[in-house]
Here is the input.
Amino acid sequence: MIELRHLRYFVAVAEEGHVTRAAERLGMQQPPLSQQIKALEQALGVPLLHRLPRGVRPTESGLVLLAEARAVLAQLDRALETVRRTGRGELGRVAVGFTSSAAFHPFVSAAIRGFREAAPGVEMAMEEGSTGELVAALRAERLDAAFIRSPVGDAAGLVVEPLLDEPMVAVVPAGHPLAGEANPIPLAALAGQPFVLYRRPSGPGLYDSIIAACRAAGFSPRIAQEAPRLVSTLSLVEAGLGVSIVPASMARLDAGGVATLRLAAPPVAPLHLARRDAEPLGATRRFVEHVRGMVEA
Here is the structure.
């Protein structure tokens, strides 16, 4: 049976034109190499080398085998290198999810942009969704990692790594009496105001944090409107349906119709990276390490 090593042996002998020099190149003894070349000739049923007084040269059949063997070995080397690069996370694919609010945090955009620059051979697929949708996609293996705001209630089978905490801010319509306030306001200043909040099933962590912060400030918020997405809260506030509390990075979306107010003791909006608890491999491992490196830096 002909094996790849026979092709490597033959290429070395043909290129060196001398069995002894080929044996040195291959790191083996000359007699076993000569035996392997003879075994290859017997298996093919044709002579591959002209034995000369000072060396060897390929026969016509040998020249054909030399060209084909080089092509086969080159293809094999490319395949092995592709496998190695995929294992190192230089090639492959990674699917990353993010909640609507996480997408606007500078850390998330910097992480994605930096990874694209560091691993241009990796295809990135992006998906936006609620925390529950992203967690379900992780468990179904449609996503490899996801930036989420709230901790996961049932974290079985997942690893949820905290990345950072972001202060939250109050947003009010541009014509609101508090709109011109430059100093941080107490959360209690919003007591009695109608609130626009993100629907709890979509983002239970932020929703519960806001409710808890309001109660700690001495009031229960009157929820006048629930937004289907956190991004929608700004539009509803601008339309005059109420006030809201959002992560500070969301203020970048303000088109001028709302006023952003700092809070004296703001609740925080955490940012986490969630993934399956199996050890990440390839591009996913490299992406996770890239994000961790940004946190450490």
